[in-house]
Amino acid sequence: MTLSEIRGKKGPGHPEGSARRAGERPHPGPRLYVTIGVILALGEASEVAMFYAGLPQWPTVAVLVALMVVNFFMVVLWFMHLLFDNRFLSSLFVGGLVLTGALFVVVLATLGAGLF
Amino acid sequence: MEHAPAAERALETGTGIDNRKLLMWLFLASECLFFGSLIAAYLVYRGDHEVPCRAGDLAACVFPTDRTVNGVEYEGLFDIPFTSVSAFVLLMSSVSMVLSLAAIQRGDQRGFRVWLMTTALLGIVFVGGQAFEFTEFHEKGLSLGTNLFGTTFFVTTGFHGAHVTVGVLILLSLLVMSFRGRLGQAQSLHVELAGLYWHFVDVVFVVIFSLIYLLQP
User: Fold this and answer.
1) In this structure, how many other beta carbons lie within 10 angstroms of the beta carbon of residue A63?
2) Who's near B74: CB < 8 A, 6+ residues apart?
3) A72: nearest Cα among B54, B211, B6
4) Lowest mean pLDDT: which of A53-67, B156-170, B172-186, B197-211?
């Protein structure tokens, strides 16, 4: 008996676990993927439009960063299935993102004076 | 009692997550730091392109976007419409990648091959576009050693392009495996892992496109 069976999880050896591993939910279908693709394309088009809109700098920066974050997480959550997979994988990736964010803050705070 | 095949039993883990998938996510988390460092370095040093202009060396002025310095207008290096198309191509390759995974998971080999081939082709188009862009920049006077702007720009986008190239090679390998009959519904995890890598490369360009190309000081 494996550890996952002892914990009552459906691992790969489990009849149902062969198709769907522990902590996973069913992945969405092609229709949703195409819809997300259209939303991503619109998001990118909006970013380019913001670049040419000639708005003041800070609103432009705020909207560009917001659109970037939305596009980033749409791909990660739906296309990379982080929304449907085991939560431990989310923790791993979010850990990497948090460390990257900390790195950004430290580098820009120490070396990036007057950056924007 | 029904037993799982030996190959599957060997992959049972305490967490219930396949070790290969766990390792891929760990690798992608480390890649966040890798690209994060490169992008942060670019943001810090991108202003270095103004140094030769301030020193009066007008011939060495190379700006990312259109700029007027001391009454002189300079045409910017970045071709935003061109890079927007490249970003769109890579974004759409993510859609075709996830559709190829969905196809193999439901046992549709033909659909899988069509979508995977589309993804690889879109990747090749992106890499070709980047090679064209790099050539253009070089002709306009920006190289790896021109200034820190050139160094950080080429290193960051070059490493990303190298990742896309590796991704294309992985996709083509999967395609060969599929045509040889060695990649079926039961081996869909290979496609899932390749897909994770490919989508990550895509989201990195989402960040590069916004922070390097669109966000100007």
Assistant:
1) 16
2) B61, B63, B66, B67, B68
3) B211
4) A53-67
Type of residue numbered A52: Y
Instruction: Tell me the shortest Cα–Cα distance from A104 to chain B, in angstroms.
Output: 6
Structure tokens at B185: 């519904």
**Structural tokens at position A78:** 């739906």
Which residues, at least 6 apart from A63, have a Cβ–Cβ distance to it below 8 Å?
A46, A50
Greatest CA separation found in chain B?
A: 84
**CB within 8 Å: B16 and A21:** yes
Six token digits for residue A73: 């997480």
Interval B21-70: pLDDT, tens: 999 999 999 999 999 999 999 999 887 766 666 666 666 667 777 777 66
Is the separation of the CB atoms in A91 and B22 below 8 Å? no
Q: Which residue has the higher pLDDT, A11 or B212?
A: B212
Task: Report ipTM for this prediction.
Answer: 0.87
Burial class (CB in 10 A: 0-12, 13-18, 19+), B194: buried
Any idea what DSSP says for residue B140? T
What are the chain A neighbours of B32 within 8 Å (beta carbons)? 93, 96-97, 99-100
What burial letters (b/e) apply to B108-120, b meaning 16+ CB within 10 Å?
Answer: eeebbbebbbbbb
Q: Between residues 39 and 68 of chain B, which touch chain A (CB distance below 8 Å)?
A: 39-41, 43-44, 47
| Residue B124: both structure tokens together | 């090749």
Strands of B29-79 (E only): list them. Answer: 67-69, 72-74
Residue with tokens 């060969």: B176
Q: Please list the alpha-helical segments (H only) found in A1-116.
A: 3-6, 30-53, 57-74, 87-111
Distance CA B185, CA B21 (A): 17
